[in-house]
Each structure stands twice: as C-alpha cells, then as structure tokens.
Design goal:
With about 600 residues, the chain is an alpha/beta fold. The protein has 21 helices and 19 strands.
C-alpha cells in the first residue's frame, strides 16, 4: 500500500471516531494514534459530555497512547485527526515529541499546523515534526457541515461553525488502545511546514496587463519566497471589461457571433454559454464597446446597443434560460433603445416610424411597446452585472457622468441639458410601456426584486449609457457585478482552504470600497478569516474605507520612480508585479513571526 493509501486508511478510522462523536451529540471530530502500522489509541470529541475544555480528540488520543505505551515520548507515532489541531493540541504534540501529524480539513480560525501558525516547524521550540494536510479533507469537512446543518435544521443552537469551520470545536475523552513497548524512534526527516496555499484574484490593470497576465506575474514572485507554494488563480472582473474571460476560465463554450457594432459596422462579438446551453454570459462591450468609437460628439449621438440585443436573441434561441449581462466600457448613450429594437420592441416617432439609432433617435420617440421584446425573450431570466449606481438622468445620470468620455460636450451645459431632456422623455415612455406590459400579464416582478415607480431614478439604470434602464424595463434583476462574478467562478469553494489571498487593480482609492472587484474579493475572503493583500499600480493617500472592507495590506508595485508611460508598459508592469508577489509572501511570513 502506498503512503497515501496508508494515510487514507487511518484517516477513515479517525472519521469513524468523528461519527461516534456526532452520535452522542458532540461536534464530529475524531483522532487515532498509530505506531508501526497499528492503532495504539483512539478518541473522539467529548467536551460537552465531560464539560472538559481539554477534551479535544487528538489531545485525548495522545494521552491514551502515552498510557498504553507506558511512556510520554511518542516520537515513533503518527497522529491522525479529522480537523487541523489548535494551539493546545499542537503544543501537546510538541511536548510529546510526536513524529508526524496527518489532518483532514484545515481550520482557518484556530489551526496551528499551517493555517494560523506552524508550531510543528517553529525553530524556537525544542521539537519539530512533519505534517501532512488535506487527507480526505472533503469527507472531514462534509461531516462537520452536515452536523451543523442538522443542528440548524432541527432548530438547535447555531454554533456558527458551518462549512467554513469558524472555530476549532470541542474534542474528547480517550478510548485507550493497546501497543508494544517503546522501540527505536522513527526518522521522518527534517521537519518542515506544509506548502503555502495562495489564491490569486486580481483584476486587470487597464491599459497595461490583463487579469491573467497580472496573476501569472504575481505567482512568479510568490514562488521566489515559497518555491513549493500551491498557487491557484481566478481571473477577476466586476461585470465590465474582462467579465467574459473571467467566467470562461472556469468552463463553458465561447461562441462568436456577427452582430451590429455601435456605429453600424458588423463586428465579431463573443458570448459564453454553459455546457448545457442553459445560461449565457454576455459582455455588452463585445458588441458596443467604446473601442469601436472615435468618441466624437456625432459618434456619441449615433452609437447604438442594437448588437447587444442581437446577442441576447441568439442566446435565447440557443436555449439559454438565464442571461448574465455585464455592463461597462460602452460607447453608447441610447438608453438601451437599440437593444430593445433588436428584440423587436416598437420604438416609434409620432408618425409611427421606427426611430433612428442612438441618443439622437430619442429626440423623436413618441411611443414604446415592449410586448414583442418580452415575447422574444420567452420568459428567460435576465441578470444585470454592474456596480454602477448612477440613475438614468440628472446630475449623476448616464449622460452627465459618463457622456464626456464617449464624446458628448460636457462643457456645453445647454447642449447636455437638451440631451438629458430627450432621455427624460424616453424614460417616461419606458414607464408607460412597463405599466402596459404588466397589465397584459407579460411582465412579472421576480420574487425578492425591489419594485420601482420610475426607471428614471433607479440606481444602476444609468449604467452603460442607460442600457440598465432598458433591461429593467424587461424585468431584469440588477445584481452586484463583482459579487455575481465571484459566484459564477466558484470563489467561495476555492478560498476555503487557502492561507493567503492576493487581489489587486490598477488604481485603488476610496471609490474602490463602493463595489470594485478587489474589495469584493476581500469581503468574501474575510468570511473565511483569510488575510488579503492588494497589489496596485497606484493608490490614494487615504484608504481607510478599503481597509474597513477587509483588505489587510495595499502594496504599490512600482520598484522605482518612473513616468506613467513606462509604468503602463506591459513588460515593466509584469516585472513590478513579480516583485509585488514576492513582497506579499514575505509580508505574510513577517506577520506570523
């Protein structure tokens, strides 16, 4: 039998003890002590039954092993335990001079053999021993999760541990085994800490490097410090640029379609469909991104979201029942009118003719009929990914805040006010069309979704030049972009057992705390008690709001004084990010001294 097979064999014995603990109403954690291939002691948690704070499974098993063998030195023994030992139990292992410890699930809140401390490899102590982590970890974790889930389901007290093992739960009294007298100590080799586990979730550095490039560079720096580090990477986005690629990295099929670009040309736009074609991820910038526009006033008036609607229609016809639509990086200011037209909604002037594309067409719109568009969507759920909270109109509206970067003359107050007036009229027509669709039974409010009196003032309606408002008119749900992306890429499952999370973005300021991707990562990581380092190209003087959201350390990446042009050079940025990854790892080690 291989060493892995042997470890799994004895971990199953520890799991048997854990189940025995659950059977008597104790937190299910079990342990066995093995010498020369034989179990010499076993125990499970009995802290509540015995009202003994030291009654942890491995603590009791070690005491029972010492009694069975007639000696306190256990250097030829291996301890198997289903949950990573706490400081008390790891300290007892040091004092008992154990040869090795094997554990299943990591304990992010109290683990002393890799998660919070490395007591087994601390050179300041008088004994060191080897550790093998993660043996049958999923089974060990599931047993704990099921136990606590049962308590909650039965109406019992919620201990707060759950699947993330927020506390090192109570363990137990001993069940002594039998064994032979002491023999020669087993040589397990020099003690060493287990490999560090690092999760990278870094947003793109816009104009410089992509999310994936940034993560590859940081991983290289981390391995300068920890050559054996287990580094996993999750490309990151917040609903805007890079959302499609971030979700695609976790599976699915990229489909390329030819659709209308924002200024009339045909463009190749991608969307992501899952393996069963039940859902699709659409990044609106693929069809109507600002990269397609010269950003002049005439372009800003003419740009349309028609191609976005074409992508939605393609996805529904392919069988998608849920559409995730990322808003960001748009060239458009048309309030989503083009998207509605592509779905066959009727937007006509006072003569009954279809309005012209873009913001300019909104000057003439006299009537909106959403019924054909709702029928084309065939009941598909539409989820909007955006962390923009701007309303459709007004001082914080789509045109006032974002119109300038697309070519509108923001310094011409009279002209901009006129354009915003067109948007107000259009928004009121959307309100009327929504009421008519509801009266016809074509539009239902999703359960749990907040209702609104008018699309004009809904936070997020102004995203992507008002595309958010048109999607709301079709019954879409507005969700946080970064939170939804983190769900789609399985962030929670990946972060559960890591030691360190490294995130980052091009520039971090107070606004980052309002919903940008790195702070979303930090908030999630803190649910599991993980330290978070953010690597950034630049930062504001005051980042209190960012630190309050869960970022522990912000590292600027520049190694030396350089100009902006050189800092944005991809090769320079990669070199800087490598060094930042090294600094993040060294900072982690320093914090644990």
């Amino acid at each position: 039998m291989t060493s892995t097979g042997i470890d799994e064999k004895f971990m199953r014995e520890a799991l048997s003890e854990a189940r025995a603990a659950a059977a008597v109403g104790e937190v299910p954690i079990g342990a066995v002590v093995v010498r020369a291939g034989e179990i010499v002691a076993r125990a499970h948690n009995r802290r509540e039954l015995d009202q003994d704070p030291s009654a942890h499974a491995e603590f009791a098993a070690l005491c029972a092993a010492a009694q069975s063998l007639g000696r306190w030195r256990l250097s030829d023994c291996t301890v198997y335990v289903t949950l990573e030992p706490c400081c008390m139990c790891a300290g007892l292992m040091v004092n008992a001079r154990v040869g090795r410890c094997v554990y299943g699930a990591a304990d992010a809140k109290a683990g002393a053999l890799g998660s919070l401390y490395d007591l087994n490899a601390d050179s300041r102590l008088n004994h060191r021993f080897n550790v093998t982590a993660g043996v049958l970890a999923d089974e060990c974790r599931e047993l704990l999760s099921s136990y606590f889930g049962g308590l909650r389901g039965a109406g019992g007290a919620d201990c707060g541990c759950g699947a993330d093992l927020d506390a090192h739960a109570a363990h137990a009294a001993a069940l002594a085994g039998a064994g032979e007298d002491a023999g020669a100590a087993v040589d397990f080799g020099p003690a060493c800490r287990r490999p560090r586990r690092v999760l990278l979730a870094i947003d793109s550095f816009k104009g410089s490097v992509s999310s994936a490039q940034a993560e590859a560079a940081v991983a290289g720096g981390v391995r300068r410090v920890w050559p054996d580090a287990q580094v996993s990477a999750l490309p990151l986005a917040d609903g805007g640029e890079g959302t499609l690629d971030a979700v695609a990295a976790c599976g699915g099929e990229i489909v390329t379609c030819e659709v209308a670009g924002p200024l009339g040309m045909r463009v190749a736009a991608r969307m992501l469909v899952d393996g069963e074609h039940e859902s699709a991820v659409i990044e609106m910038a693929e069809a109507a991104g600002i990269g397609y526009s010269p950003c002049t006033e005439s372009a800003a008036l003419a740009a349309t979201t028609y191609g976005v609607g074409e992508l939605m229609l393609r996805a529904v016809r392919a069988g998608a029942r849920t559409l995730y639509i990322g808003l960001g990086g748009s060239a458009t200011n048309d309030g989503g009118a083009g998207m509605l037209q592509a779905l066959s909604a009727r937007l006509v002037d006072d003569r009954g003719c279809d309005i012209a594309p873009g913001l300019a067409g909104l000057e003439q719109v006299a009537s909106v009929d959403l019924a054909p568009a709702l029928q084309a969507l065939d009941g598909a759920r539409v989820v909007v990914l955006s962390d923009v909270e701007n309303p459709l109109v007004g001082r914080r509206g789509a045109l006032a805040v974002f119109g300038g970067q697309k070519g509108l003359p923001t310094d011409d107050v009279e002209a901009l006010g006129g354009y915003d007036g067109w948007m107000v009229g259009y928004g009121r027509l959307l309100d009327t069309a929504i009421a008519e669709a509801r009266a016809q039974g074509l539009l239902r409010v999703p359960e749990g979704t907040r209702t609104f009196g008018s699309v004009l003032g809904v936070p997020g309606a102004g995203a992507a030049g008002g595309l958010g408002a048109a999607l709301l008119a079709l019954g879409a749900e507005l969700h946080s972009g970064v939170e939804t992306v983190l769900d789609l890429i399985g962030f929670d499952e990946r972060v559960r057992d890591v030691d360190l999370v490294i995130t980052g973005e091009g520039n971090m300021d107070e606004q980052s705390a309002a919903g940008k991707a790195p702070v979303g990562v930090a908030r999630r990581a803190k649910r599991y008690g993980k330290p978070v380092v953010a690597v950034v190209g630049g930062r504001a003087d005051n980042l209190d709001a960012v630190y309050e959201q869960g970022v522990d350390l912000v590292l600027t990446i520049c190694r030396k004084p350089i100009g902006l042009e050189l800092a944005l050079d991809p090769q320079e940025a990669i070199t800087n990010l490598i060094c930042a990854g090294e600094s993040a790892a060294r900072s982690y080690d320093l914090a644990r001294l």
